[in-house]
Amino acid sequence: MMYCYIIKESSEIPLKSHRTRPRFEDKLLNNIKQRLKAEGFEDVKLSIREGVITLITKSNERVGQVVSEVFGVHKVCKAICKKFSSLDEIVRDAEPIYRDIVKGKKFAVRVKRAGVHDFTSLDVAAKVGEVLRKYSAGVNLSKPDVTVNIEVRHDMVYYILECWEGVKGLPLGIEGRVITLF
User: Fold this and answer.
1) 0.70 cut: is pTM over it?
2) Among 37, 72, 78, 162, which residue's CB has the most CB atoms within a 10 Å radius?
């Protein structure tokens, strides 16, 4: 398993036209790379698919906090990412990751899914919840002590560990030049 970061772009960017959006996304990727390089993170691999940026790096410390301070970033989540082939594999891998987190607490499982699969988000949530229930104080879907977040995107599963809110807005440097006359 490898650690990665899922970066959700600001809600302004997906609203742009199909010609403008790639320019905004490229600028955001470039700003993230520059910020990480300035902070001393050299070994960064960034990719973007359907408005979600995936960042993989060898260094885990402070990366999420640094990226969350880049304009144009809505949210950054540290996750364990892994390729999967079946629902049973997702459930099997979730148990050792989350069992200590839910230990003695009431929990809920929230799943987001993109792509074509032979299962639904609710199927994943129910199966993972069933496996984790024996470690917890029970399930509480309305006011849980702990929320287990999992994202399934095409052939990858992301077991989310920690999230940071971004500063949102548009990427710096995208606005161009402006003149004001009084």
Assistant:
1) yes
2) 72
